[in-house]
């Protein structure tokens, strides 16, 4: 099956009706350890007229060795961008979906700053569930789009930025807890990660409210 290349077709159409778009994608929802991260890119009409950054895809489709390079081009293309976080302690306290909303809110705030008005924007969210409005009911105009990370270049950019940032953080955390091999599995349920949990228990970065012992192996 050929790889679908993202475009700015949808973004250009929506920018006829909205002054800016804020495009979001999350990384780390299904991990057993570490935070969730939400990438945000702010897009205006001028940005959407440019070419799609070279090599840009949904982060899952970009080879790991090339992700940082692609993320650099994506960050240089976007008028503004940021990554928002919610830690494992927040996931345990409020649940994964509300934690995603908190991370998205932080990403939007950081990306917009004092320059862009989030209230006037259309927020494009990859997937079919609006976790942003649960945190800010009625405050933002949010539109979930299935496969937006595959089809919409601005959402793909947010995906790659979040993936590179979160992977780098998990590599840093692995130096403190090397037994879990987060430098390889990034906190997801690899066989080696699960075996380390059985032998050593949970670290302070694990999502302790989850039924981790019964979690399926994802890769």
Outline the structure in words.
It is a single chain. 40% of the residues lie in helices and 15% in strands. The model has no long low-confidence stretch (mean pLDDT 92). Strand 1 (21-27) and strand 2 (36-43) form a beta hairpin. A five-stranded mixed β-sheet has the order 3-2-1-4-5. The chain contains nine helices and five strands, in the order H-E-E-H-H-E-H-H-E-E-H-H-H-H. It has helices at 9-14, 45-48, 64-77, 88-94, 96-112, 148-151, 153-174, 182-185, 191-200, and strands spanning 21-27, 36-43, 80-86, 122-126, 141-145. The longest helix is centred in the C-terminal third of the chain and has 22 residues, at 153-174. It has one domain: Ribonuclease H-like superfamily/Ribonuclease H (Nucleotidyltransferase, domain 5), CATH 3.30.420. By secondary structure, the chain is an alpha/beta fold. It is globular and about 55 Å long. Its EC number is 3.1.26.4. This is Ribonuclease. It is an enzyme of class 3 (hydrolase). It catalyses: Endonucleolytic cleavage to 5'-phosphomonoester.
């Amino acid at each position: 099956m050929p790889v679908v290349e993202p475009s700015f077709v949808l973004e250009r159409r929506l920018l006829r009706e909205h002054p800016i778009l804020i495009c979001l994608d999350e990384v780390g929802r299904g991990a057993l350890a570490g935070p969730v991260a939400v990438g945000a890119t702010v897009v205006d009409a001028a940005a959407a007229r440019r070419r799609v950054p070279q090599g840009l895809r949904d982060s899952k489709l970009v080879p790991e060795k090339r992700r940082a390079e692609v993320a650099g081009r994506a960050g240089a293309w976007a008028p503004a961008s940021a990554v928002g976080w919610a830690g494992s302690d927040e996931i345990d306290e409020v649940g994964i979906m509300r934690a995603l909303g908190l991370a998205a809110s932080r990403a939007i705030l950081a990306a917009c700053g004092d320059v862009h008005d989030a209230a006037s924007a259309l927020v494009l969210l990859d997937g079919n569930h609006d976790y942003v409005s649960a945190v800010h009911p009625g405050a933002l105009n949010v539109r979930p789009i299935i496969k937006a990370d595959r089809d919409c270049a601005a959402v793909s950019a947010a995906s790659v930025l979040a993936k590179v940032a979160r992977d780098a953080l998990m590599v840093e955390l692995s130096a403190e807890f090397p037994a879990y091999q987060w430098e390889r599995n990034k906190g997801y349920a690899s066989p080696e990660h699960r075996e380390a949990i059985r032998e050593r228990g949970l670290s302070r970065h694990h999502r302790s409210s989850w039924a981790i012992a019964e979690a399926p192996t994802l890769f």
